[in-house]
Amino acid sequence: MNAKQQENKKWFLKGMRHGVPIGLGYFAVAFTLGIHAKSIGMTPFQSALMSFTMHASAGEFAAMTVIAAGSGYVDMAITQLVINLRYLLMSCALSQKVSEKMPFIHRFFISYYITDEIFGISSTVDGKLNPRYTYGAALVASPGWVLGTFLGAVVGNILPANVASAMSVALYGMFLAIIIPPARKHKVIAVIVVVSMLASCGFEWIARAVSEYITLSSGMRILILTVVIAGIAAYVRPIEESEDAANEG
Length: 249
Known about the structure:
Blueprint: H1 3-39, H2 44-53, H3 57-68, H4 73-83, H5 86-94, H6 104-112, H7 116-122, H8 131-158, H9 161-167, H10 169-185, H11 187-209, H12 218-236, H13 241-248
Helix pairs in contact: 1-2, 1-3, 1-8, 1-10, 2-8, 3-4, 4-12, 10-11, 11-12
Protein backbone atom coordinates (compact mmCIF):
# COMPACT_ATOMS: atom_id res chain seq x y z
CA MET A 1 0.00 0.00 0.00
CA ASN A 2 1.53 3.29 -1.13
CA ALA A 3 1.47 6.57 0.78
CA LYS A 4 -1.58 7.88 -1.09
CA GLN A 5 -3.62 4.77 -0.31
CA GLN A 6 -2.58 4.91 3.35
CA GLU A 7 -3.67 8.56 3.50
CA ASN A 8 -7.05 7.73 1.96
CA LYS A 9 -7.52 4.83 4.40
CA LYS A 10 -6.72 7.11 7.35
CA TRP A 11 -9.33 9.65 6.23
CA PHE A 12 -11.91 6.92 5.60
CA LEU A 13 -11.50 5.40 9.06
CA LYS A 14 -11.58 8.86 10.63
CA GLY A 15 -14.86 9.57 8.84
CA MET A 16 -16.30 6.30 10.13
CA ARG A 17 -15.38 7.18 13.72
CA HIS A 18 -16.96 10.59 13.42
CA GLY A 19 -20.03 9.09 11.76
CA VAL A 20 -20.90 6.74 14.63
CA PRO A 21 -22.67 9.31 16.86
CA ILE A 22 -24.40 10.73 13.79
CA GLY A 23 -25.68 7.27 12.85
CA LEU A 24 -27.03 6.68 16.36
CA GLY A 25 -28.82 10.02 16.32
CA TYR A 26 -30.19 9.31 12.86
CA PHE A 27 -31.60 5.97 14.00
CA ALA A 28 -33.58 7.53 16.85
CA VAL A 29 -35.06 10.29 14.70
CA ALA A 30 -35.71 8.05 11.70
CA PHE A 31 -37.53 5.55 13.92
CA THR A 32 -40.21 8.13 14.67
CA LEU A 33 -40.34 9.05 10.98
CA GLY A 34 -41.03 5.40 10.17
CA ILE A 35 -43.89 5.29 12.64
CA HIS A 36 -45.35 8.42 11.08
CA ALA A 37 -44.91 6.95 7.60
CA LYS A 38 -46.87 3.89 8.64
CA SER A 39 -49.64 6.07 10.04
CA ILE A 40 -50.26 7.61 6.59
CA GLY A 41 -50.31 4.21 4.88
CA MET A 42 -46.72 3.81 3.63
CA THR A 43 -45.10 0.37 3.72
CA PRO A 44 -41.74 -0.28 5.44
CA PHE A 45 -40.08 -0.66 2.01
CA GLN A 46 -41.52 2.63 0.77
CA SER A 47 -40.46 4.36 3.98
CA ALA A 48 -36.90 3.01 3.78
CA LEU A 49 -36.65 3.89 0.08
CA MET A 50 -37.70 7.47 0.84
CA SER A 51 -35.02 7.74 3.52
CA PHE A 52 -32.38 6.22 1.24
CA THR A 53 -33.08 8.69 -1.55
CA MET A 54 -33.63 11.73 0.69
CA HIS A 55 -31.56 12.06 3.86
CA ALA A 56 -33.60 14.93 5.25
CA SER A 57 -35.90 14.77 8.28
CA ALA A 58 -37.76 18.01 7.58
CA GLY A 59 -37.98 17.18 3.87
CA GLU A 60 -39.36 13.71 4.53
CA PHE A 61 -41.86 14.95 7.09
CA ALA A 62 -43.03 17.60 4.60
CA ALA A 63 -43.28 14.93 1.90
CA MET A 64 -45.41 12.74 4.16
CA THR A 65 -47.65 15.72 4.92
CA VAL A 66 -48.14 16.32 1.19
CA ILE A 67 -48.80 12.59 0.59
CA ALA A 68 -51.30 12.41 3.45
CA ALA A 69 -53.11 15.46 2.08
CA GLY A 70 -53.38 13.83 -1.35
CA SER A 71 -51.62 16.74 -3.05
CA GLY A 72 -50.12 16.52 -6.52
CA TYR A 73 -46.59 16.17 -7.85
CA VAL A 74 -46.20 19.91 -8.39
CA ASP A 75 -46.95 20.63 -4.72
CA MET A 76 -44.49 17.93 -3.73
CA ALA A 77 -41.70 19.20 -6.00
CA ILE A 78 -42.04 22.86 -5.00
CA THR A 79 -42.34 22.02 -1.30
CA GLN A 80 -39.17 19.92 -1.40
CA LEU A 81 -37.36 22.64 -3.35
CA VAL A 82 -38.11 25.20 -0.65
CA ILE A 83 -37.66 22.92 2.37
CA ASN A 84 -34.32 21.52 1.15
CA LEU A 85 -32.97 24.70 -0.40
CA ARG A 86 -30.44 25.00 2.41
CA TYR A 87 -28.53 22.04 0.97
CA LEU A 88 -27.74 24.13 -2.09
CA LEU A 89 -26.11 26.69 0.18
CA MET A 90 -24.23 23.94 2.02
CA SER A 91 -22.95 22.57 -1.29
CA CYS A 92 -21.69 26.00 -2.30
CA ALA A 93 -19.92 26.39 1.04
CA LEU A 94 -18.40 22.90 0.90
CA SER A 95 -17.12 23.51 -2.64
CA GLN A 96 -14.56 25.82 -1.07
CA LYS A 97 -13.19 22.90 0.97
CA VAL A 98 -12.54 20.51 -1.92
CA SER A 99 -9.55 20.54 -4.21
CA GLU A 100 -9.99 22.02 -7.67
CA LYS A 101 -8.54 18.77 -9.04
CA MET A 102 -11.15 16.57 -7.37
CA PRO A 103 -12.88 14.43 -10.06
CA PHE A 104 -16.55 15.02 -10.81
CA ILE A 105 -17.53 11.54 -9.61
CA HIS A 106 -16.31 12.36 -6.09
CA ARG A 107 -18.10 15.70 -6.12
CA PHE A 108 -21.29 13.94 -7.19
CA PHE A 109 -21.26 11.38 -4.37
CA ILE A 110 -20.24 13.92 -1.73
CA SER A 111 -23.19 16.10 -2.74
CA TYR A 112 -25.54 13.13 -2.34
CA TYR A 113 -24.55 12.78 1.32
CA ILE A 114 -24.68 16.44 2.30
CA THR A 115 -26.85 16.52 5.41
CA ASP A 116 -26.77 19.03 8.25
CA GLU A 117 -24.55 16.77 10.37
CA ILE A 118 -22.22 15.39 7.69
CA PHE A 119 -21.81 18.87 6.26
CA GLY A 120 -20.90 20.08 9.74
CA ILE A 121 -18.08 17.60 10.26
CA SER A 122 -16.88 17.76 6.64
CA SER A 123 -16.61 21.53 6.65
CA THR A 124 -14.47 21.59 9.80
CA VAL A 125 -11.71 19.16 8.79
CA ASP A 126 -8.22 20.59 8.55
CA GLY A 127 -7.12 21.60 5.08
CA LYS A 128 -8.84 20.34 1.96
CA LEU A 129 -11.62 17.76 2.28
CA ASN A 130 -10.65 14.23 1.32
CA PRO A 131 -13.77 12.57 -0.17
CA ARG A 132 -12.95 9.35 1.69
CA TYR A 133 -13.71 11.16 4.94
CA THR A 134 -17.25 11.92 3.81
CA TYR A 135 -17.64 8.37 2.47
CA GLY A 136 -16.59 6.91 5.82
CA ALA A 137 -19.04 9.10 7.75
CA ALA A 138 -21.86 8.33 5.31
CA LEU A 139 -21.15 4.58 5.42
CA VAL A 140 -21.96 4.58 9.14
CA ALA A 141 -24.58 7.32 9.31
CA SER A 142 -26.74 6.50 6.28
CA PRO A 143 -27.65 2.92 7.34
CA GLY A 144 -28.77 4.28 10.71
CA TRP A 145 -31.18 6.62 8.94
CA VAL A 146 -32.55 4.02 6.52
CA LEU A 147 -32.73 1.17 9.04
CA GLY A 148 -34.36 3.41 11.64
CA THR A 149 -37.10 4.40 9.21
CA PHE A 150 -37.67 0.79 8.16
CA LEU A 151 -37.89 -0.55 11.70
CA GLY A 152 -40.10 2.36 12.75
CA ALA A 153 -42.56 1.45 10.00
CA VAL A 154 -42.36 -2.25 10.94
CA VAL A 155 -42.98 -1.54 14.62
CA GLY A 156 -45.77 0.79 13.60
CA ASN A 157 -47.44 -2.19 11.93
CA ILE A 158 -47.00 -4.38 15.01
CA LEU A 159 -47.88 -1.98 17.81
CA PRO A 160 -51.51 -1.14 18.62
CA ALA A 161 -52.73 1.97 16.84
CA ASN A 162 -52.95 4.05 20.01
CA VAL A 163 -49.38 3.15 21.07
CA ALA A 164 -47.95 3.90 17.61
CA SER A 165 -49.80 7.20 17.59
CA ALA A 166 -48.37 8.08 21.00
CA MET A 167 -44.81 7.23 19.90
CA SER A 168 -45.15 9.39 16.80
CA VAL A 169 -45.32 12.39 19.13
CA ALA A 170 -41.54 11.96 19.45
CA LEU A 171 -41.27 13.41 15.95
CA TYR A 172 -42.64 16.71 17.20
CA GLY A 173 -40.20 16.49 20.10
CA MET A 174 -37.43 16.34 17.49
CA PHE A 175 -38.62 19.60 15.96
CA LEU A 176 -38.84 21.20 19.39
CA ALA A 177 -35.25 20.14 20.03
CA ILE A 178 -34.29 21.86 16.77
CA ILE A 179 -36.07 25.18 17.31
CA ILE A 180 -35.78 25.74 21.09
CA PRO A 181 -31.97 26.15 21.41
CA PRO A 182 -31.65 28.83 18.69
CA ALA A 183 -34.89 30.46 19.88
CA ARG A 184 -33.46 30.82 23.38
CA LYS A 185 -30.25 32.27 21.98
CA HIS A 186 -31.83 34.75 19.54
CA LYS A 187 -35.07 36.57 20.40
CA VAL A 188 -35.72 37.21 16.71
CA ILE A 189 -35.90 33.47 16.02
CA ALA A 190 -38.24 33.00 18.98
CA VAL A 191 -40.55 35.69 17.58
CA ILE A 192 -40.44 34.05 14.12
CA VAL A 193 -41.35 30.66 15.61
CA VAL A 194 -44.35 32.12 17.45
CA VAL A 195 -45.46 34.09 14.39
CA SER A 196 -45.13 30.95 12.25
CA MET A 197 -47.38 28.94 14.56
CA LEU A 198 -50.00 31.68 14.74
CA ALA A 199 -49.86 32.20 10.97
CA SER A 200 -50.22 28.47 10.36
CA CYS A 201 -53.32 28.31 12.57
CA GLY A 202 -54.75 31.43 10.94
CA PHE A 203 -54.04 30.15 7.45
CA GLU A 204 -55.76 26.87 8.28
CA TRP A 205 -58.85 28.74 9.45
CA ILE A 206 -58.89 30.96 6.35
CA ALA A 207 -58.42 27.96 4.04
CA ARG A 208 -61.45 26.27 5.55
CA ALA A 209 -63.51 29.47 5.37
CA VAL A 210 -62.85 29.95 1.64
CA SER A 211 -62.74 26.25 0.72
CA GLU A 212 -65.92 26.64 -1.35
CA TYR A 213 -64.19 29.14 -3.63
CA ILE A 214 -60.46 28.39 -3.43
CA THR A 215 -58.79 25.10 -2.58
CA LEU A 216 -55.26 25.16 -1.20
CA SER A 217 -53.59 21.88 -0.39
CA SER A 218 -51.68 21.40 2.84
CA GLY A 219 -48.42 21.26 0.93
CA MET A 220 -49.12 24.54 -0.85
CA ARG A 221 -50.00 26.23 2.45
CA ILE A 222 -46.68 25.10 3.92
CA LEU A 223 -44.90 26.45 0.86
CA ILE A 224 -46.61 29.87 1.00
CA LEU A 225 -46.03 30.32 4.72
CA THR A 226 -42.38 29.26 4.45
CA VAL A 227 -41.57 31.67 1.62
CA VAL A 228 -43.53 34.63 3.06
CA ILE A 229 -42.38 34.38 6.68
CA ALA A 230 -38.76 33.55 5.83
CA GLY A 231 -38.67 36.37 3.28
CA ILE A 232 -40.05 38.95 5.71
CA ALA A 233 -37.69 37.81 8.46
CA ALA A 234 -34.68 38.00 6.14
CA TYR A 235 -35.66 41.51 5.06
CA VAL A 236 -36.49 42.87 8.52
CA ARG A 237 -33.62 41.21 10.40
CA PRO A 238 -30.82 40.16 8.01
CA ILE A 239 -27.72 38.49 9.42
CA GLU A 240 -25.02 41.06 10.00
CA GLU A 241 -21.53 40.41 8.66
CA SER A 242 -20.13 40.38 12.17
CA GLU A 243 -22.63 37.71 13.23
CA ASP A 244 -21.84 35.63 10.16
CA ALA A 245 -18.12 35.83 10.87
CA ALA A 246 -18.71 34.83 14.48
CA ASN A 247 -20.71 31.79 13.38
CA GLU A 248 -17.95 30.73 11.01
CA GLY A 249 -15.46 30.97 13.81
